[in-house]
Write a structure and sequence with these properties.
Oligomer: homodimer
CATH topology of the largest domain in chain A: Aldehyde Ferredoxin Oxidoreductase Protein, subunit A, domain 3
Strand content of chain A: 5-15%
Number of helices of chain A: 26
Largest interface: A-B, 48 and 48 residues
Number of strands of chain A: 16
Structural class of chain A: alpha+beta
Shape of chain A: globular
CATH superfamily of the largest domain in chain A: Aldehyde Ferredoxin Oxidoreductase Protein, subunit A, domain 3
CATH class of the largest domain in chain A: Mainly Alpha
Helix content of chain A: 25-40%
């Protein structure tokens, strides 16, 4: 057995009930690693052109990486991918937690699920024992109830669960997959793909041990992390407040997505992080092998009952159900979070489609009558929470919004399209591109559509945002973090152009590597406690490979290119790498009032990005030479 | 002062006698490193389009790197570059020895020499003291005599010298520069550039110490090397025989350039390495901080007097004045070596132009009359040696050959062009492309024209050549050497196509890095004792930089792209990346009889290479996006 991984991929056909184990060999795993690398490889090879994302030709892949389960912070994540019902292109969503390491301990790297089951089922894996079990009694259940029932049935409270809620069963195009209820695969509608396959859950229990090439080195790095993460200024009080601090930080910076991205400042925000946490937080939760425990568990009885078994909201959720919908009620976001997790919805897309509907309502494009009497104004908490349930159950107008902002806008007509904040059909995440133009480029070219985990987006490398613009001391962590990549100069946030696109492209390779290794950006983002070269050391210590940052960056680039190739095969053109018009007109309020992107600069930068990626200038089709350069010459046959 | 280097570049104007010191700062040195990186940077910025390589607009740059002088084997080289009088494109030539470290100890990284001196001069540097000294008494002198005179005049036997011979003074287009007489800058005609500037020599003496960030680590690596280099099978008995073993190895492999590249097997070769060394070798010589001492000093009284002060021939010289000219006399190559070093000629180009003339003679294209009675047949040792002198002095037909094979062929006419084995005007080195198609691609795209130090060319990564083709044990050093670059598969020598071009391109980046760091391929070629990641460790230990193989590979790619950009600026098109027709017809003898390249496959691979490099498909012009990707957006202004 190689170090760090088992080398086994499970292939389960839900139609025939066949279960197979494939062992593609060490070079395969070294080339594709896991997560995005493995998912994009199989999706590109196996999903036929024109396949319906909710049809039997789609496949859904659950993948860890060669290093998942290493006893180092950040190595506890896993990815789920399929052709996305939201975008029609490459779909993928990651989460932290424990499921990934558990699958490794069971003896597998990944699971490819193909075919549609004729009746509701769930997959149970206990070490080498793989079962397709009846799920008739689970169908229609909220995630929490299904979780309880599965654990009772298996008589195992330690089993790690991936479960869809009613939203997934109802094929809501942005439905997600709950992992142990508190972690979540939100983006790209993977819940609907499980729903379309009558697959309620995938649960796993593993009791084997992984062997590592250099366990002492791993322990040393874990110790270094434990001793240092709290001292790193950029860890943002992760343990104390998780990502919720971003909500208030973005407000101060004028970059808080507010009222469907019309402004970057939410006038009515009248509480702060301390107050939020004092009123709602009951404890911390965390992920495999990580001492940070950055997840904030919220509970409340009033004004809404919030059940702590669903964990608590991240920044994205607080913003999507707060400022974005003009909702100042501090309990509303946490309640919406709980609702989405129970029902199986992506909080980001759900918040955006509701804020979209709110803007349409405010502008008279949709009316109270369309909404069965609901007054869907900005700030109407009750209507917002009601709409979450209507989307999940596809009741009334919820059925239209359940299609996602893009399709809903097309259905609504009357100019609604211009208020649908999406790329490729996937709704914006909670980073305002007009505050960080690189985020705009990231939304435009991310293979999954607008997404917050596909590229750097917190502006940490902009001296203007980090306050180091006039510092002559470039020994500070921010400016030096990217030196190992040869990125020696910072670039202003409010810019595009060649230098920004270089920074963006290298970091996209790196983020793609994160999603191929299934590791956490909060641990490995370059400015954090563990540096770029720590990652190289860890992969070497896990696997025993004589590897390098060059090899690793290339695996990141390779995975992005595979996902791009999947998209090209499935019909993507330059038109799909577009941004909504709103980004090219000024933000309406806050310290960045008036900030806007420039269409011409954006188009020019998009072309520069294509050129940097080795894609053709016109539609971003990977060039024959580039595919060979990345060691994936086989992809040429899929594209030309 | 930063670790490892001084950060100072000398700029000397020979016309005005101005001497300036420039300090471009740490980021400049980190981005361009030295050697090719620094030379291509300044040549591209400063040499105007259309400049005559032998005119006053040309500049000649002598460069070390940020790590030259580190107490580790392989770090004792330096580079000399200018617009080449041989090719009209980017010119550069490297050598080992001691001059580079000496310049560093004097306090400088590089010297830019501009303007032409009205009268013969030489440059003397002793630490910070820089003098332009009269060289009237040195002009016309052979290198050895000039070396003696300079040392007498300076009363310093330890001064390190770069000296041109009569060939350089006579502007022979492939004249070189001798370094301490035994080392040599052969390729691309740098001697003629010095000659055109009336610059006889550049001598240097430095007594300062360099500081390193982690001297203990450097000592550790040096110890590792000393303990292991002899055990590495691929070190080819370097200490005992130097590169001369290649001569006999290539003969056995059928890849020995013979009779102007008509065949790969020299029928009349009737001695072996042991006999050669028994008869000629008197001692070993070596380079700075290197325990290998791979240089073989030859001496002889009969049949020719061979003066050991000029060292001894490498493989390239033995072949160029042996099999290539059909000369089986084992003393001829060593004698020609001595002659070329004395007179200041590149042994490679000299051998090739003579073998070209021999083929023309054999075919009746040139006659005894053209040659003042010389019977220039294959195998005529006396005529060959005579022609070396005629070229140096530009006497008779030597004046035509002194222009290089390309120009000579044009002048001769009568179809002579097809026997001129050159790319971009520079003569082939002694690797037969039909035995390793990657060498053909390397000759075609090397910025300096056909050259042996710009790309991998010994076929070590082809299992067919290394004898590992059927081995299932890929733990062996050959197959694993490139793993840190993500190159997991070997590729057959007699092939081009996507996989080969990927291997070639990555290794070209690495070789370009070698020439930017000014390090020795015999130490750092991936299959040697020090591995790819040792190099990263060394650069980190020298400079204290948190660097990586990614950053270093990008500096290699950047330097290649700068040199390419220089060539584009100076008129290069795809036509210049061409190979002689001979390579597309079969080798005439030896075990590879009949082996040939395929024109269509070559053209397709050339396009794939352009695409991999981020250059346009048509003429290989670096794309705007690629230049930004490499952090050299400024180059766009030079190209478009």
């Amino acid at each position: 057995m190689p170090y760090g991984y088992n080398g086994k991929i499970l292939r389960i056909n839900l139609f025939t009930s066949d279960v197979k184990v494939e062992e593609p060999g060490e070079k395969f795993f070294r080339k594709y690693l896991g997560g995005r690398g493995i998912i994009s490889y199989f999706l590109l090879k196996e999903i036929p052109k024109g396949a319906d994302p909710l049809g039997k030709e789609n496949k859904i892949i659950f993948s860890t990486s060669i290093a998942t389960g290493a006893p180092v912070p950040g190595f506890g994540r896993h990815s789920i991918g399929a052709k996305s019902p939201l975008t029609g292109f490459y779909g993928e969503s990651e989460s932290g937690g424990f499921w990934g390491p558990e699958l490794k301990f069971a003896g597998f790297e990944a699971i490819i699920v193909e075919g549609n089951s004729p009746k509701p089922v769930y997959i149970s894996i206990k070490n080498e024992k793989v079962e397709i079990k009846d799920a008739a009694h689970l169908w229609g259940k909220e995630t929490g109830d299904a979780d309880d029932l599965i654990k009772q049935e298996l008589e195992d409270k330690k089993v790690k669960t991936l479960i869809i809620g009613p939203a997934g069963e109802n094929l809501v195009r942005f439905s997600g997959i709950a992992h142990d209820l508190t972690h979540y695969h939100g983006r790209t509608g993977m819940g609907a793909v499980m729903g379309s396959k009558n697959l309620k859950a995938v649960v796993v229990r593993g009791t084997n041990k992984l062997e590592f090439a250099n366990s002492e080195k791993l322990r040393e790095i874990a110790r270094f992390f434990a001793q240092n993460f709290k001292n790193n200024a950029d860890n943002h009080g992760q343990h104390n407040h998780g990502t919720s601090d971003y909500y208030f930080g973005a407000q101060a910076a004028g970059s808080l997505p507010t009222k469907n991205f019309t402004t970057g400042y939410f006038d009515e925000l009248d509480y702060d992080a301390d107050e939020l946490h004092a009123k709602l937080k009951i404890r911390n939760d965390g992920c495999y092998a990580c001492p940070v425990r950055c997840k904030q568990v919220f509970a409340s009885e009033e004004p809404y009952k919030i059940d702590p078994k669903y964990g608590g909201p991240e920044f994205e959720t607080l913003a999507a159900f707060g400022s974005l919908c003009g909702v100042s009620d501090m309990f509303a976001g946490p309640k919406a979070h709980e609702l989405c997790n129970r029902l199986g919805l992506d909080t980001v897309s759900t918040g955006v489609v509701i804020s979209f509907a709110m803007e349409c309502y405010e502008k008279g494009i949709i009316t109270k009558e369309d909404l069965d009497g609901l007054e869907l104004t900005y700030g109407n908490t009750e209507a917002m929470l009601k709409m979450v349930e209507m989307i999940s159950s596809r009741k009334g107008f919820g059925d239209i919004l359940a299609e996602g902002a893009k399709r809903a806008a097309e259905k609504i007509g009357k100019g609604a399209q211009k208020y649908a904040m999406h790329v490729k059909g996937q709704e914006f995440a909670m980073a305002e591109p007009r505050a960080k133009f690189g985020v705009g480029l990231g939304y435009a070219v991310s293979p999954t559509g607008a997404d917050h985990l596909q590229h750097e987006h917190d502006g940490a490398f902009d001296p203007a945002l980090t306050g180091y613009s006039h510092s002559t001391d470039d020994s500070n962590v921010f400016l030096r973090a990217l030196y190992p990549m040869g990125l020696l100069d910072t670039v202003p946030s409010l810019s595009l152009g060649g230098e920004k696109v270089q920074l963006f492209t290298y970091l996209q390779h790196y983020w793609s590597l994160f999603n191929s290794l299934d590791i956490c950006i909060f641990v490995f983002e370059p400015v954090r406690t563990l540096k770029v070269n720590h990652l190289v050391d860890i992969i070497a210590a896990v696997t025993g490979w004589d590897t390098s940052l060059f090899e690793l960056m290339k695996t990141g680039e390779r995975a992005t290119t595979l996902a791009r190739s999947f998209n090209i095969k499935h019909g993507l053109t330059r038109e799909d790498d577009n941004l909504p018009d709103r980004l090219f007109s000024g933000l309406e309020g806050g310290v960045l009032k008036g900030a806007k992107m420039d269409r011409e600069e954006f188009e020019k930068s998009l072309t520069l990005y294509y050129e940097m990626m080795g894609w053709d200038r016109k539609n971003g089709v990977p060039l024959e030479g580039k595919l060979f350069e990345l060691g994936i010459g086989w992809v040429n046959k899929k594209l030309r």
